[in-house]
Q: What sequence folds into this?
């Protein structure tokens, strides 16, 4: 089956089995290793990305279901000013340690802030509730996102690459 979608701002088209997991297609065919495999069952958020602006776990998405969608992985998000604000805020808050869960948390934060640039702590905790961290706990991650809002709420209020 021929699949077409927009991937990190570029239109792509390729033939593949529509039942392959989006996670595998992105890693194996496009070399996008920011999507990680953790649980492989939609429970940990390590493979999180945005599909049409909504957070999704790519390990449970058959590639045939994202025909004509707009997909953004951490590699695409890294090109934005919003990423730089989030990265610095998370780093300043000592939010994450391992690099394995980090892309998923960052994409969950981006999904939240696109819809709500000024979330309260409860909304932040809810937004990252699908992302597992096995080492630091969540307090510093929440603090990092709070800091990003403080510094960059205007960026999320008017993103130029929706
Ligand atoms: S690997 Fe996809 S949610 Fe865990
Ligand atoms: S910092 Fe990555 S699992 Fe905790």
A:
């Amino acid at each position: 089956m021929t699949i077409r979608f927009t991937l990190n701002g570029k239109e792509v088209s390729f033939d593949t089995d529509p039942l392959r997991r989006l996670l595998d297609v992105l890693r194996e065919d496009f070399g996008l290793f920011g999507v990680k495999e953790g649980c492989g069952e939609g429970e940990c958020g390590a493979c999180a990305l945005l599909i049409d602006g909504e957070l999704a776990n790519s390990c449970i998405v058959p590639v045939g279901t994202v025909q004509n969608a707009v997909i953004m992985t951490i590699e695409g998000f890294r090109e934005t000013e919003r990423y730089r604000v989030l990265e610095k805020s998370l780093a300043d808050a000592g939010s994450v340690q391992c690099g394995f869960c980090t892309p998923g948390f960052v994409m969950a934060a981006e999904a939240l802030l696109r819809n709500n640039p000024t979330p309260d702590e409860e909304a932040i905790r809810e937004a990252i509730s699908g992302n597992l961290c096995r080492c630091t706990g969540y307090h510093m991650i929440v603090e990092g996102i709070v800091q990003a809002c403080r510094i960059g709420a205007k960026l999320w209020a008017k993103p130029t690459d929706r």
In short: The radius of gyration is 15 Å. The first strand starts at residue 2 and ends at 7.
